[in-house]
Amino acid sequence: MSEDGRIFREAWIAGVRKHFPGEPKPSYVTPWEETPEWERAAASAVCGQVRELVRVSAGRSARLSREQKGQFVAVCWAAQMYQHFEDPKPGYVAGWGDLPEWQQETDADIFEAVERSG
Fold this sequence. Notes:
Blueprint: H1 2-19, H2 37-56, H3 66-84, H4 101-117
Helix pairs in contact: 1-2, 1-4, 2-3, 2-4, 3-4
């Protein structure tokens, strides 16, 4: 579980550093070891959900557009936020169209990092 979460978190940090305009908030780039337990659990779960989608599609998920890949990560993340918080912050559960472009790109990067990790 922690390996999946680490893959997710490292892809998130790389995506934030690549796509975020300006200097990201420190919490956006907190290393895995310092990430709160709820966030580690959520990252592990979402990584597992992406892995399962790749598996059940026999790898055909590679044909999804970057937008579709990012949307999948965003929906899985929102579901985890509802699991971990009774009343999550609106930004944690925002719909795809309400996410900033940097976050959409980062979510797509996460999906692709999970795909590459096998």
